[in-house]
Amino acid sequence: MNRFLWPLIGFVVLVVLLGVGLTLNPRDVPSPLVGKPAPDFSLPRLHAPEQPFSPKEMLGKVWLLNVWASWCVSCRQEHPVLVDLARRQSTPLIGLNYKEVRGDGAIDIDKVAPDSEKGMVIERAAAWLTQHGDPYTLSVLDIDGRVGIDYGVYGVPETYVIDKAGIIRMKQTGPITPDIFSGKILPLLDELSK
Amino acid sequence: MKHALMVLLVAVASIGWHAAHGGEAVPLAENELTEKRLIAISSELRCLVCQNESLAGSHAELANDLRREIRTLINQGKSDSEIMDFMVSRYGDFVRYRPPLKGTTLLLWFGPALLFFVGLAALVRYLRRRDRVLQDAPLTAEEQRQADALLHPQDSRQGRS
Description:
The complex is a heterodimer of chains A (194) and B (161).
Chain A: H1 2-23, E1 43-44, E2 52-53, E3 63-68, H2 73-88, E4 93-98, H3 117-132, E5 138-142, H4 146-150, E6 158-162, E7 168-173, H5 178-193
Parallel strand pairs in A: 3-4, 4-5
Antiparallel strand pairs in A: 1-2, 3-6, 6-7
Chain B: H1 2-22, H2 32-43, H3 61-75, H4 80-91, H5 106-133, H6 141-151, H7 153-158
Helix pairs in contact in B: 2-3
């Protein structure tokens, strides 16, 4: 009896560990930025390129920063959730348009004239929002992805929940599903808005 | 058959050659020293898009951006550890192939050694216990006779023993 007990216990432990491992998402790398101030930047607005936007303008408000691009397939999956959010919530949703042109695998950036890139970015991003609906309070343009690096962006879409003091409270890598929204983001927004 | 095999081998070999040489990163660099440091640093870093590739070897878009960023930092005169901190503060410890030793990584660092010693202890225990079970007991006369018969079949047949 005892002869088989320990191997059996070992086997069960192994199965449990592997089972837990299967439910984890290897893409979900914990961000060191959670609990830290949102990195500052100054980027042109999509609908008013001559007017820069900085996260400092959002101090005192709970807000969401959503990283998106028209070439990003998962963003399309996530988009209805954002549109729904914008309709029901008053929480400001800022879009960070990430490498709209040079991130697109179909475009060879070496063949794009440097001074025409910004125009292309604006045209493509605006067209996409017109087609799919614009849930964003405003969108800013991270043309070369430099701000994305400061935010540790490695897979679009990504979403950051930022509190009144400008501290990042949560990072969601990958599309926000309705479950994630109602289960994690909404309770957090309620708590932070108190 | 032999011929077909040859063709197959050559084909496989050439695929391997292309994979190795087809997409090598284009060195953008003027400065050899900068490039050497870039390679040394980026070999220690994980590409977050492909996860099992180093930043030095990855063709992912983000890896390109990050290599460019590291190159800029090198040119600004930043030390290797400052550059490492830059990456870790944005992407976390996961970005390092050699995770730092701290509370959350203790199991990662010492888990294998721990398993080894648990296994060793179990082995020693098992061997000792077996030793005890197999302790030499003197044979009975009947057992001795059977053993002799098995060991010296001819002798016993001739009736000499």
